[in-house]
Amino acid sequence: MTERYSEQLRALSEPDWSAATEHRFVRELCAGTIAPGPMRRYLIQDHRFLDSFLRLLGAAIATADTMEARLRFGRSAGVVSGEENTYFLRAFASLGVGAERDTDPDSAPTAGFKALMREAAESGSYPAVLSVLCVAEWLYLDWAMRAPRPLPADFVHAEWITLHDNPDFRQFVSVLRSELDRVGPGSDAECRDVFRRAVALERQFLDDAYA
Ligand SMILES: Cc1ncc(C[n+]2csc(CCO)c2C)c(N)n1
């Protein structure tokens, strides 16, 4: 039996995929034991990631080759712009994040992600855009769905997990994987390159929370 194309890409991205999904940040977040310092640093950097991510979703809306996919990306853009953004604002208030939200420089992995997302968006290539989106969503679902229950009491921890493991999000990851299975093999070299670089950056992004 041949493996799904998206699963082949995931396997090729090892050992970075497992290093990210089993990262110290993930373990401490899911246990509710993560120190405020790394949580703050992570969220400040991640909020910047979200801005470029929205641009990438815009590129997916623009480059998708079916209307059905375009509609799905449009709905996801609404979620990221709504619920997800308010989580950041409430979490910043709870963690006492002030001016550093704007003044801290971009970390190297944040800058790398912004560059990769811009590159994919500007390529105009639906398979390249899908490769980055698929990593950013599927890798998060992969660790979030394995979080031990009950979830931590602090909403800063618990909500970051449920944002990445809920029925709508699972369905979105399933669409992204099906789309990549469908169009990826026609642009194999490009997808392998972009997917692998995105997974390496995910791992570095998590490492950076403890830098
Ligand atoms: C470095 C980094 N990689 C992936 C995600 C996950 N993520 C980012 S935007 C988005 C879409 C809607 O939730 C998702 C799942 C993240 N937050 N930070």
TrEMBL record:
> What metabolic or biological pathway is this protein involved in?
Cofactor biosynthesis; thiamine diphosphate biosynthesis
Function statement:
Catalyzes an amino-pyrimidine hydrolysis reaction at the C5' of the pyrimidine moiety of thiamine compounds, a reaction that is part of a thiamine salvage pathway. Thus, catalyzes the conversion of 4-amino-5-aminomethyl-2-methylpyrimidine to 4-amino-5-hydroxymethyl-2-methylpyrimidine (HMP).
Q: What is this protein called?
A: Aminopyrimidine aminohydrolase
Organism name: Endosaccharibacter trunci
Q: CDD domains annotated for this entry?
A: TenA_E_Spr0628-like (cd19358)
Spell out where the chain crosses the membrane: none
| UniProt family annotation | Belongs to the TenA family.
Name the InterPro entries for this protein: Haem_Oase-like_multi-hlx, TenA_E, Thiaminase-2/PQQC, Thiamine_Salvage_TenA
Upper lineage: Bacteria, Pseudomonadati, Pseudomonadota, Alphaproteobacteria, Acetobacterales
Query: Main EC class of this protein?
Result: hydrolase
Keywords assigned: Hydrolase, Thiamine biosynthesis
This enzyme catalyses: 4-amino-5-aminomethyl-2-methylpyrimidine + H2O = 4-amino-5-hydroxymethyl-2-methylpyrimidine + NH4(+); thiamine + H2O = 5-(2-hydroxyethyl)-4-methylthiazole + 4-amino-5-hydroxymethyl-2-methylpyrimidine + H(+)
**Occurrences of domain Thiaminase-2/PQQC (ranges):** 15-210
Query: What's its EC?
Result: 3.5.99.2
Pfam families for this protein? TENA_THI-4
